[in-house]
Specification:
Layout: H1 2-17, E1 41-42, E2 48-49, E3 58-59, H2 67-84, H3 102-113, H4 122-133, H5 140-146, E4 153-155, E5 164-167, E6 173-176, E7 183-185, H6 187-198, H7 216-230, H8 236-240, H9 242-263, H10 275-292, H11 294-304
Antiparallel strand pairs: 1-2, 3-5, 4-7, 5-6
Helix pairs in contact: 2-6, 2-7, 3-9, 4-10, 6-7, 6-9, 7-11, 9-10
Length: 305
């Protein structure tokens, strides 16, 4: 809640000093205080309550409907990053320690792998081989941060397309919601996650995993929207590591899904025993598609920046 108060207050002040283009609006959910000025209330049974302002005339959609929608998703994330780019990250608590730190997920995977006891299958063998082949690149973003090439900034933490609110009349992005994951991090995590979820036309839950692909047109639209707002504060090193973010985030999520499958589905809710295995295969196939189109993705970044 403290993070939410800090971020929403900061964005409100920025918007008072910065005018959006004609026809555009941007609203952040504001924390509504109790009568005694607190940002939350705990009742006699120990339940935690809060109230947030309502964003009128807007809706969210679960999937990217078309290229204009994809551009608005990128615009929303870019504007959010722009509005908080001058907010010192140390003012925010780390609400999810270890989140998006791929080397830590790999370490946990190794510990689970050492336990053994799972059913052998071609899909399992594929995942084991896939992870091993990419082990060395798992720390690429964290290594860059350690070396001072990338810096911590406030990030959203979960910029899925269904967290982007769209004006019902115009289709333009008017807000980014679900701010409980806001924390210090690398903007690359947000952008990579947005592209991972938005540029996969088949979605995360398809069982036809071998047909999964990264759609370049959708990816270009997301990046065009993002750069239209975020280009002003990104450094040369930020641009240099954007492809690594696009490739790493689906690998990371696939690693998490596969590890959970090996553990017996203890973290992600699963509808059946192999559900998280199937989810992992989707993300790994998406990673392969991204890798196969590396030159094209790098060209898009260079063209749009």
């Amino acid at each position: 809640m403290a993070n939410l108060v800090v971020v929403s207050g900061h964005v409100k002040e920025r918007l008072e000093r910065q005018h959006l283009p004609a026809g555009r609006r941007w609203e952040m959910p504001q924390v509504l205080l109790t009568r005694d000025g607190a940002d939350h209330f705990i009742d006699q049974e120990g339940s935690f309550w809060r109230a947030l302002s309502f964003i009128d005339g807007a809706e969210t959609l679960d999937i990217v409907m078309d290229l204009p929608h994809a551009r608005e998703a990128g615009y929303a994330l870019g504007l959010f990053h722009k509005l908080v780019s001058d907010l010192p990250p140390e003012r925010l608590a780390d609400t999810l320690p270890g989140f998006h730190l791929t080397p830590l997920y790999l370490k946990h995977y190794d510990a689970v792998l050492a336990g053994g006891g799972w059913r052998q299958s071609p899909e399992l063998a594929y995942c084991l081989k896939f992870i091993e082949a990419r082990r060395a690149s798992a720390s690429v973003l964290e290594d860059a941060r350690t070396q001072g090439k990338l810096v911590l900034r406030p990030i959203h933490g979960d910029p899925k397309v269904n967290n982007v609110m769209l004006d019902k009349a115009t289709g333009l992005a008017v807000g980014l919601i679900d701010l409980d994951t806001v924390k210090p991090g690398l903007v690359h995590y947000d952008l990579g996650d947005c592209l991972r979820s938005g540029a996969n036309p088949m979605g995360e839950e398809t069982e036809d995993w071998q047909q999964v692909r990264f759609d370049l047109d959708t990816g270009r639209a997301i990046l065009a929207g993002y750069f239209s707002q975020a280009g002003g504060f990104l450094s040369e090193n930020d641009y240099a590591y954007l492809f690594d973010a696009v490739r790493l985030l689906p690998f990371e999520l696939g690693l998490r899904f596969f590890t959970d499958y090996l553990e017996g589905n203890v973290y992600f809710k699963a509808r059946h025993r192999d559900h998280n295995l199937m989810r992992a295969l989707v993300q790994f196939r998406l990673t392969e598609s991204i890798e196969a189109q590396e030159d094209a993705i790098r060209d898009i970044v260079q063209d749009l920046r």
